[in-house]
Amino acid sequence: MNYKKIVVAGGGVLGSQIAFQSAYCGFDVTIWLRSEGSVGRTQPKLDKLAQTYREFIEKMAEGEGPWAAGLADSDCFDKEACLAAVRRAASSIKLELDMKAAVEDADLVIESMAENEQDKIAFYRRMAPLLPEKTVIATNSSTLLPSAFAQYTGRPDKYLALHFANSIWLNNTAEIMAQDKTDPRYFDELIDFSHAIRMIALPVHKEKSGYLLNSMLVPFLLSGLDLYVSGVSDPQSIDTAWTRGTGAPKGPFQIIDTVGLTTAYNIVMQYQKVPGLLSPLLKKMMMPYNFKAMAAVLKKYIDEGKLGMASGEGFYKY
């Protein structure tokens, strides 16, 4: 693996985190964005990440709070070196609207756009003729399979999935999943890249919607949403039932606010549109859910600008 220039397509919650973590670890990082409005939304996320990284580093130096393994190893922690890496990351990430300029000389493009199949296809078709021959493409899609998009990339042998957990510096896992046409060489290269940005690499040996984490997380979130839209209880009570009953730090609605309501809406729409793709067991589990009502509730919040933690309000205010 000889990657130097990393391009992240999309500056959302995870896109901005992937970019900042990669820059923190010394890579040359560009974020491609679709509009000036996207620039205005992405830069504050990067500024906030710089602040968050500094706060974690200070607390780690004082022996307080959780250890963020994405930032440093506990046995060779150097506070000043970590703070310098934050400053370097914050000052070096480039935001680019010109796709051709963004992907020029890219070693790896990580697509981190919203879970919308047609938008992703349009993106790949537009980018394909602009890429250098060497460029590897990875999708950070939460639930969509890479095989659904490989033909549109112009390089299916260099295309696979690379999925991260939210709060990448703390929950430092990277799920690597190939599709049938992926050359194993690039699977191995993404394992190496994941290690290079301080992730625990989790190989996924069979293409699976949701990878490892979201295969478990999405049904949990849908269960919480269904309890709410069916009038069984309210978000706060549902979250409390989960956090108090299991000791987990967050309930389903707190998690949805963290990942963003737009992501949750797109996932719900996928389940609503393609029930025939579900396994018989999963279909039996999911079909009683009121996906139509879930979509309506999430869309109402989104239309009101309540997008989750990043916008200051979702199911909760921040």
Describe the structure.
This protein has 318 residues and is an alpha/beta fold. Helix content is 47%, strand content 12%. It has twelve helices and eight strands. The chain has an eight-stranded mixed beta sheet. β4, α5 and β5 form a beta-alpha-beta unit. α1 packs across α2 and α9 (252-259) crosses α10 (261-273). It is globular. Mean pLDDT is 93; it is low at 275-279.
Radius of gyration: 19 Å
What distance separates the N and C termini? 41 Å
The whole-number mean of residue pLDDT values reads 93
Q: What is the β-strand count?
A: 8
Q: How would you sum up the global shape?
A: globular
Output the helix-strand order: EHEHHEHEHEEEHEHHHHHH
Strand content: 5-15%
SS element count, helices: 12
Largest beta sheet, briefly?
8 strands, mixed
Feature tags:
alpha/beta; 12% strand; 318 residues
Per-chain topology:
Blueprint (H helix, E strand, L loop, with lengths): L4 E5 L3 H12 L3 E5 L3 H26 L17 H14 L1 E3 L2 H5 L4 E4 L5 H11 L8 E4 L19 E6 L8 E5 L6 H13 L3 E5 L8 H17 L5 H12 L5 H8 L1 H13 L6 H7 L4 H13 L15
Parallel strand pairs: 1-2, 1-4, 2-3, 4-5, 5-6, 7-8
Antiparallel strand pairs: 6-7
Helix pairs in contact: 1-2, 1-3, 2-3, 7-9, 7-12, 9-10, 10-12
